TrEMBL record:
Keywords: NAD, Oxidoreductase, Porphyrin biosynthesis. It catalyses: precorrin-2 + NAD(+) = sirohydrochlorin + NADH + 2 H(+). It comes from the Bacteria. This is precorrin-2 dehydrogenase. Pathway: Porphyrin-containing compound metabolism; siroheme biosynthesis; sirohydrochlorin from precorrin-2: step 1/1. PANTHER family: SIROHEME BIOSYNTHESIS PROTEIN MET8 (PTHR35330). GO terms for biological process: siroheme biosynthetic process. It comes from Pelotomaculum isophthalicicum JI. Residues 119-144 form the Siroheme synthase central domain. InterPro entries: Met8-like (IPR028161), NAD(P)-bd_dom_sf (IPR036291), SirC_C (IPR042518), Sirohaem_synthase_central (IPR028281), Sirohaem_synthase_N (IPR006367). The keyword Oxidoreductase applies. Its EC number is 1.3.1.76.
Amino acid sequence: MGHYLISLDLSDKLCLVIGGGQVAERKVYSLIESGALVRVVGPELTPGLKDMVESGRILYRQGQYLPADLNNIFLVISATDNKEVNRQVAEDCASRNLLVNIVDTPEKCNFFVPAVVKRGGLSIAVSTSGRSPLLARKIREELETTYGLQYGEFLDLIADIRRDVINNVSDKNKKKEILENMVCDEVLDFLKSGRMDMVKERILSAYRSGRT
């Protein structure tokens, strides 16, 4: 069966990472970047995780995983190399209907973390349903060369204009025309080549012509 791909809002959601190694550190960074509140449980921490604890960026309980660690948790990532701990975490999360990802053990996960390219408000995710994270990473690296930083700038540029068009243009056909012209092939060709001057000119032209 396929998976239902979604984009989670983790703002101020308490998430648990079990483990204190390099993999756990990468998972913690990605959660923090998404606005999550992060608690880490593990006997030892990497220097990077220690710095985050000392600076107050994450919460930390030193020791082995306990079922009580799941209290008030929204999402769980287990990043240990202990199969017994991972099995227990998966079972405990299943009994509580919690979102859980066991690193490198797809059969015990109910969600997978995709490889992601981020360009401002634009996110492009690549998922292999846990079957080959390496392939997902390779495809992500290709996408990073195709979609440069200008795509984030472009998204910021059209966001306010799009909102104004949706709120203030009553004619449905005219509204559709303006929105389509802002992301037409010509605009996207200029965007791909990094010609932001021409991108801005075409977007403003589409907006003005549609409003007159």
